[in-house]
């Protein structure tokens, strides 16, 4: 049996055991030397409702602040790895705030679906107490699901727009699609996906959004989050203005490595900041 097939089988067995580590893959490694950003960044911690201390990074633009971007990052590594996905917005006048879920990086606790929802709510409460308007929530991969699952709650009142990068309608749906693509796990695609109980499914929340605009970005060549899952989520999103950007970039969360895609995202955000000011 080849190495890749062994990996798939090992993953399937872990799912059967109900192990969440395949999804919540945070680490404690410092991926970037933050001293490079000494003039623009600060860090700190805020508390969740159940007492976990979550670590965050904040980057201030050196020009006039156009708005605040809050990042809900993907399922692996930690904030020191993911903040670069949105740091380029600082150069365009946006304040960027990103945080680590429980069990990731310098944050305390152990990761779980319910824990990440609590973390998302606490992050929104923390941000909205500081910045009452012109806040754009930016969710990527698993972070998009966390973001959407808490966006209808009270603390989200300061958020005027959403960016959904490589999102999905259901985590079980993602697992089922990935298992169906391989002969080794094809026959087990349905039972394996339903045996995974720690689901974060943003589909229901997507139809009850209370924001003026949503931008979704997805690659046809994303090997982790299938494009049909992203389109299914986009179809359910309720907002006055919905935009979908489809790319051909290879890799998961590769969209924002492309200057052209960054330009499109910035253009959508720029023209919608007027709507933010009116909230």
Short description:
This protein is of the alpha/beta class. It has helices at residues 3-16, 79-82, 84-87, 113-130, 142-150, 171-180, 189-195, 203-206, 227-236, 259-277; strands at residues 25-26, 41-47, 53-59, 67-72, 76-77, 94-99, 135-140, 159-165, 213-219, 241-247. Helices cover 35% and strands 20% of the residues.
What is the fold's blueprint, element by element?
Blueprint: H1 3-16, E1 25-26, E2 41-47, E3 53-59, E4 67-72, E5 76-77, H2 79-82, H3 84-87, E6 94-99, H4 113-130, E7 135-140, H5 142-150, E8 159-165, H6 171-180, H7 189-195, H8 203-206, E9 213-219, H9 227-236, E10 241-247, H10 259-277
Parallel strand pairs: 1-5, 4-6, 4-7, 7-8, 8-9, 9-10
Antiparallel strand pairs: 2-3, 3-6
Helix pairs in contact: 4-5, 6-7
Keywords:
279 residues; two-stranded parallel sheet; single chain; 10 helices; alpha/beta; globular; eight-stranded mixed beta sheet
């Amino acid at each position: 049996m080849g190495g890749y097939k062994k990996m798939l089988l090992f993953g399937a067995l872990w799912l059967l055991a109900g192990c969440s580590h395949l999804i919540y893959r945070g680490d404690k490694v410092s991926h970037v030397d933050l001293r490079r950003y000494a003039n623009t960044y600060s860090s700190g911690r805020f508390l969740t409702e159940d007492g976990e201390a979550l670590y965050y990074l904040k980057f201030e633009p050196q020009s006039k602040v156009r708005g605040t971007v809050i990042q809900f990052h993907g399922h692996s590594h930690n904030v020191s790895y993911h903040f670069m996905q949105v740091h380029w917005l600082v150069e365009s006048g946006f304040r960027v705030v990103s945080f680590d879920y429980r069990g990731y990086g310098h944050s305390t606790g152990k990761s779980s679906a319910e824990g990440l929802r609590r973390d998302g709510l606490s992050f929104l409460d923390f941000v909205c107490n500081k910045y009452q308007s012109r806040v754009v929530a930016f969710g990527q991969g698993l972070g998009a699901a966390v973001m959407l699952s808490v966006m209808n709650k009270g603390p989200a009142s300061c958020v005027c727009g959403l960016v959904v990068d490589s999102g999905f309608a259901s985590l079980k749906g993602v697992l089922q699609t990935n298992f169906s693509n391989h002969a080794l796990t094809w026959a087990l695609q349905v039972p394996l996906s339903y045996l995974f109980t720690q689901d974060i499914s943003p589909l229901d929340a997507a139809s009850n959004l209370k924001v003026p605009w949503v931008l979704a970005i997805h690659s046809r060549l994303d090997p982790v989050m299938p494009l049909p899952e992203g389109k299914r989520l986009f179809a359910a999103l309720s907002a006055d203005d919905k935009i979908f950007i489809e790319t051909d970039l290879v890799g998961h969360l590769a969209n924002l490595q492309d200057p052209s895609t960054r330009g499109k995202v910035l253009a959508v955000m720029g023209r919608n900041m007027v709507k933010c000011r009116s909230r």
